[in-house]
TrEMBL record:
Organism: Solicola gregarius
Source species taxonomy: Bacteria, Bacillati, Actinomycetota, Actinomycetes, Propionibacteriales
Self-association state and partner proteins as the record states: Tetramer of two alpha and two beta subunits.
Entry EC number(s): 1.17.4.1
Protein name: Ribonucleoside-diphosphate reductase subunit beta
Signal peptide: none
Record has Transmembrane as a keyword: yes
Cofactor(s), names only, from the UniProt record: Fe cation
Cofactor note: Binds 2 iron ions per subunit.
NCBIfam families in UniProt: PRK09614.1-5
Length: 328
């Protein structure tokens, strides 16, 4: 079954790589391969002295981050394996998605490495993603969209099926990876800003480098699907997508108040949530919307990780300039 574009479910499709139709996907695959790394390349044990000096609030924040990141890297893989890979037809997209799935597995192992190295209560860390309401709400949100792709019948040639495909991409790629993960990365890297957990910071930086490519791929895929399918280009669908992003911001703001209930040196929930709103504005602009919050970036030291592509109108069907600069 094919839609004669990037979408399609025919097993016989996408078996020839050349000539490459979607150069942006092929470029991102090559960059992802060049970025390959392994967790044990970082000497994480050198950070144990810092961990011993950290306050209870700082240790809580680190444990909270691990509670969220660890299972959600695997959740992203489910979104990719069941909600994206089966519905795209191009070989270059399949190549990139295969590498991305390996990267998510590698990130999971990186967070396992953190849990194995630092004296973190593993049971507590695993339990929190279900027992902390603000964290569980984020997971339930993602699962709701993945279920549409996996547990219900999806006709990718029908308008509603294509909408569900885009909704899933927005939920896992723009919101989960592009806002929620980046918010957590900022908190994780803030320790290094205070000369703490420097090797842990390097590990996170490598993950951010991967995630920036994931975000570029997802945004390019969304924009390509919209360009190739004019039936999706309605004000109503645009408003729905925009509202999804705003809903994601509200969930993240509640989560961050649980992450840092009392704040730590140089960082509190209000500061993180300002950054979340800044990120949301960038993602909205990358999808062609007007910013919703109009806030300045409070963490300018994260600037190189925040912005991904040139601005492209969400419903500009004539713009085919989706290639990205995938250089590190």
């Amino acid at each position: 079954m094919s839609t004669n574009g990037i979408l399609g479910t025919g097993i016989g499709e996408g078996l020839l790589l050349k000539p490459v139709k979607y150069e942006w996907a092929y470029e991102l695959y090559n960059q992802a391969v060049a970025n390959t790394w392994f967790p044990n390349e970082v000497q994480l044990g050198e950070d144990l002295g810092d961990f011993a000096k950290m306050t209870a609030e700082e240790r809580h924040a680190l444990t909270f981050l691990m509670s969220y990141f660890n299972p959600n890297e695997l959740l992203v893989n489910k979104a990719l394996a069941f909600g994206v890979y089966p519905y795209v037809s191009s070989a270059e997209c399949h190549l990139y998605l295969a590498k991305q799935m390996w990267e998510e597995a590698n990130h999971c192992m990186a967070f396992e490495y953190v849990l194995e190295t630092f004296p973190i209560d593993r049971a507590q860390a695993y339990e929190s993603h279900l027992s902390v309401p603000s964290m569980a709400a984020k997971e339930e949100f993602e699962i709701r969209f993945i279920k549409r792709m996996t547990e219900q019948t999806l006709d990718i040639t029908a308008t509603e099926g294509k909408r569900d495909f885009v909704r899933n991409l927005v939920a896992y790629n723009v919101i989960l990876e592009g806002i929620w993960f980046y918010s957590g990365f900022m908190v994780a890297l803030s320790f290094r800003q205070r000369n703490l957990l420097r090797n842990f910071g390097s590990l996170i930086e490598w993950i951010v480098r991967d995630e920036s490519l994931h975000l570029k791929f997802g945004l390019n895929l969304i924009l390509t699907v919209l360009e190739e399918n004019p039936d999706l280009q309605t004000p109503e669908f645009a408003a729905e997508i925009r509202q999804l992003v705003l809903d994601g911001v509200e969930m993240e703001e509640r989560y961050n108040r649980d992450l840092l209930p009392n704040g730590i040196l140089g960082l509190n929930a209000d500061y993180i949530n300002t950054y979340v709103r800044y990120l949301a504005d960038r993602r909205l602009e990358e999808l062609g919307f007007e910013p919703a919050y109009g806030v300045a970036n409070p963490a300018k030291w994260m600037a190189t990780a925040n912005d991904t592509l040139q601005l492209v109108n969400f419903f500009e069907s004539t713009n085919t300039s989706y290639e990205v600069n995938a250089q590190a």
